[in-house]
TrEMBL record:
Family matches, as Gene3D superfamilies: 1.25.40.390
Pfam family for this entry, one: SusD-like_2
Keywords per UniProt: Lipoprotein
Superkingdom assignment: Bacteria
InterPro entries, A to Z: SusD-like_2, TPR-like_helical_dom_sf
Name used for this protein in its record: SusD/RagB family nutrient-binding outer membrane lipoprotein
Organism whose genome encodes this protein: Rhodocytophaga rosea
Length: 496
């Protein structure tokens, strides 16, 4: 072999060795190079929690503003009055938000198990119960048992009966109470700042809400009494400090959602005559928290402020001209718009899951109906006081001595007083006032004046139209059992 051949073989061997080393190096670093650190394949429960809370609260506030405050006659439209006349069409925001966020709730549940991160698992069960309650109370029968199982091959989930869904909701809350009884605090929690004891109180307080909701269909007295009688095992809200609410930020991007509206759009909603008349009748100081005086009197310091609401359900022309026009119609408080980023606004304009005032009114109703053994008047007064305190007002004894407030009269009259005060206290706090009105008929509301719904206040949302193409058979089966897919079909717990 000559020197040229020898050198050539040496060079070839060197090249092969270099290529081999290069391939080996590339192979070992292949996963690192092709892994996007900004798009992780798994996300920790604490990283999912904040997104669920934020997204649901933004959706709930927005949809509550459009539908929730008008249908229950807190506000009335003075232009573009279709919603106020019950021309709703499909309302998909709650449906979409619940099922979108339920994926992350399920991911938390999949990553946790008995004895492993019981704190996040318990909170996830509370959130699952609350989310499913929202969507079933708005629509009725919905996908539940088979929901959010696309990865398991279930692309067309069956609709469960609402009775079954409520069984699951109550089971989740009972399990959450157990898991959270000895659990560590959590991170990234914008509802309670990580305080797991408050989540446990919420689980039990929500359980009372949902037990009372189905009390027309089920015997719930023993279960409710068991919770109320044993605060060590079933702690409940004790004051406004325990309110389950989401505090928005003074700065973008997490400000109160209505702040994104144009001023003209915000001012299309005015005070409803129904609520303003009731507050004025009771000389209730919450009037000045919820509403502004008419612009004409507000702009003239020498005149007394006047508060005037609009009847719900007027036509566009009637609404804009009512009482002489917009200058003579009370607007919604600036605390829910431009002042929502002030210190006071941040304490009022919130997203709500549940409040201490609501719990007290639940207990008052349950006691008055003899479902639990307790003092209905005590809980009734506690609820009023809690609501006043939340809005920074003090209840004078004279308020309780008014005929419309004093806890006297027939059993029905007492129930009406409890539920009317509960209605006032839940101003712009989601859909709970609408759900209560559907269940009880209180407060006594008249349908919008020129409504397009056969003189009936709606009692549900229609299913998203897209379900007709993506899940047609199961939707059809649900309608066959529940009733026509319209806004007048009552859900299972809503008995006449």
């Amino acid at each position: 072999m000559n020197s040229t051949q020898s050198n050539g073989r040496f060079l070839n061997n060197t090249r092969l060795l270099f290529v081999g080393l290069l391939i080996s190096a590339c192979t070992h670093s292949f996963e690192d190079i092709n892994t996007n650190s900004n798009n992780p394949s798994t996300v920790l429960p604490k990283q999912l929690l904040a997104g669920i809370q934020r997204d649901m609260m933004h959706t709930l506030v927005n949809e509550s503003w459009v539908i929730g405050t008008t249908v229950i006659q807190y506000t009335a439209k003075n232009t573009t009055t279709l919603v106020d006349r019950y021309i709703w069409g499909e309302r998909n925001q709650i449906w979409d938000a619940v099922y979108d966020n339920m994926r992350d709730v399920n991911n938390i549940l999949k990553q946790t198990s008995e004895g492993k991160e019981n704190n996040y698992r318990g909170v996830a069960l509370v959130l699952r119960a609350w989310l499913f309650s929202l969507v079933t109370d708005c629509y009725g029968d919905i996908p539940y048992t088979e929901a959010i199982q696309g990865k398991e091959g279930i692309l067309s989930p069956a609709y469960d009966r609402q009775e079954t869904i409520y069984e699951g909701i109550l089971t989740d809350l009972a399990e959450a109470n157990r898991l959270l009884s000895d659990a560590a605090n959590i991170e990234n929690d914008f509802i309670y700042g990580g305080d797991i004891n408050k989540w446990r109180k919420l689980a039990n307080s929500l359980r009372l809400r949902y037990l009372l909701r189905i009390s027309g269909r089920k015997e719930v007295g023993a279960e409710m009494q068991q919770i109320v009688a044993n605060p060590a095992e079933y702690p409940l809200f004790e004051s406004n400090v325990d309110n389950a609410s989401y505090t928005f930020s003074a700065t973008a991007p997490d400000q109160f959602p209505l702040l994104a509206l144009r001023i003209g759009s915000f001012n299309e909603s005015r005070a409803s005559k129904t609520l303003i008349d009731k507050l004025q009748q009771l000389q209730d100081p919450r009037l000045k928290v919820f509403f502004r005086p008419t612009p004409s009197t507000e702009a003239t310091p020498s005149t007394d402020d006047e508060y005037t609401g609009i009847p719900n359900g007027l036509t566009d022309v009637e609404a804009i001209r009512y009482n002489g026009g917009p200058d003579f119609q009370s607007r919604i408080s600036p605390l829910f718009y431009e002042q929502s980023i002030t210190d006071k606004g941040l304490q009022i304009a919130k997203g709500f899951m549940m409040t201490y005032a609501e719990l007290q009114f639940i207990l008052a109703e349950a006691a008055q109906r003899k479902i639990i053994i307790s003092s209905p008047e005590t809980h009734y007064k506690n609820g009023i006081q809690a609501s006043f305190q939340f809005y920074g007002k003090q209840v004078e004894e004279a308020y309780f001595l008014q005929n419309e407030v004093m806890f006297e009269g027939t059993d029905i009259q007492k129930l009406e007083k409890v539920l009317t005060q509960k209605w006032i206290s839940q101003f712009f706090q989601g859909f709970e006032a609408w759900f209560d009105w559907r269940r009880t008929g209180f407060p006594s509301l008249k349908p919008g004046v020129h409504n397009e719904n056969a003189n009936k206040i709606p009692v549900r949302f229609i299913y998203p139209i897209i379900e007709q193409s993506l899940n047609a058979k199961n939707r059809a089966d649900a309608i066959l059992l529940q009733g026509p897919d319209d806004i007048n079909t009552r859900v299972w717990w809503d008995i006449e």
